[in-house]
């Protein structure tokens, strides 16, 4: 790891190569352990050099978006986490297409579309993650998902050797999945194909969805959004509620009394609390309904 740090410091600033980074500060759960190294590239060149150095070092790595769908175990992550710097948040609109870099918040992209009276991204206005994370997970809400509006993606090979282009059909988008789960390549930017609409109607729809989110979801407590993937033919929150688990707590982790599909940090939850609660929910739902719930949240660490 020391040799890798030395290599990265040849091109990255010292403040962008962080040892023993407390991942509570970088994840929406506000819980969990430390990463051995956090690297924050500020340019495409820095990103490619970082990926090349990681390939040579053979140290495990993980690419972090806005940290809204990740939990690092209390024991920490003994590898390198890469997080895009602020310069990877640009958004550009040309006609009815919108291109956003991977570090931009998908909610900010939806608001930019509104400014140009472009419709199609209203569903994303309340999603807290980044564009890269949203494409990686084919994020969705209110019966819509990224696959409905995406046109293409620019990415970098995981070894940092090549930048390339993928059309929508090549991204293999399905429920909470993309081709990047298999390739582990890095999403640089995404282009969305939208339609001209009425600005007032777009704004009204965004307001409606935001109000629905704020009244039905626990937005005032740290969480990772919907904790479990939707099981075939059902809904995780519905099963958890019918199992009588709403409000169930383990330490500082709780099944939200407002929406059973959410696990929240009530103030002092550890990653162990969250994971123990996850297993308790999974076992109870499996016993009662024969359904195995799978976490949507990505869990890092030994």
UniProtKB/TrEMBL annotation:
Record-linked Gene3D superfamilies: 3.30.465.10, UDP-N-acetylenolpyruvoylglucosamine reductase, C-terminal domain, Uridine Diphospho-n-acetylenolpyruvylglucosamine Reductase, domain 2
InterPro entries documented for this protein: FAD-bd_PCMH, FAD-bd_PCMH-like_sf, FAD-bd_PCMH_sub1, FAD-bd_PCMH_sub2, MurB, MurB_C, MurB_C_sf, Oxid_FAD_bind_N
Pathway linked to the protein: Cell wall biogenesis; peptidoglycan biosynthesis
GO molecular function: FAD binding; UDP-N-acetylmuramate dehydrogenase activity
First-level EC class: oxidoreductase
Annotated GO CC locations: cytosol
HAMAP family given in the database record: MurB
Name of the protein: UDP-N-acetylenolpyruvoylglucosamine reductase
Species: Clostridium aminobutyricum
